[in-house]
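Re-running the complex after MR caught last week's input typo. The corrected sequence lines follow. Everything else is unchanged.
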Amino acid sequence: GESVGLHLPTLSVQEGDNSIINCAYSNSASDYFIWYKQESGKGPQFIIDIRSNMDKRQGQRVTVLLNKTVKHLSLQIAATQPGDSAVYFCAENVERGKLIFGQGTELSVKP
Amino acid sequence: EAGVAQSPRYKIIEKRQSVAFWCNPISGHATLYWYQQILGQGPKLLIQFQNNGVVDDSQLPKDRFSAERLKGVDSTLKIQPAKLEDSAVYLCASSLSGDGYTFGSGTRLTVV
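Corrected-run output:
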């Protein structure tokens, strides 16, 4: 069935290091992908998105890579900061704006 | 611009009671979503509205959950009667054109 999953439930990095969060998706028809950051007690916050006609997209300190061949998505955070500590979700748009979310990866940044 | 507003922020009820959540989307956003997020999991879509019409409610447990968006703006989600497994955060989101979703802070429901 349709599902989006994450490889690692938790990730711990040192402040200043780069972080890589991975995601596998199963619906090859999905045309739009989003990474969200969710802090405790808050709703998901948009980080960056990418359409299926692209392989890479860069934002401020974040980069999303899309590999459609293996249906894999990754989020790279450069120079990770304590404020980046949160749960990160990938989501795919399967049809008509319907978002399917993965399980999430909890990122912990050690000072 | 103002974000997606939800109320209440927290609600504790006993099982078999009823509860309602309210959402005010970003002005002009035609599409509104209700998601259920169980602790430790990603949000799961319950229902999607386009203006005041339902686009997708395939994951909504219709024997106990109902939602409406009568004037194409505000929306309410109701649970009656509640079960213990309904304990979760209920998130509302809106979008202008099917992407660029904005989420509210959610309502945390505890059923005891």
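None of the earlier attempt is carried over here. The interface with chain B takes residues 4, 32, 34, 36, 41-46, 49, 89, 91, 93, 96-104 of chain A (CB under 8 Å). Chain A is about 0% helix and 55% strand.
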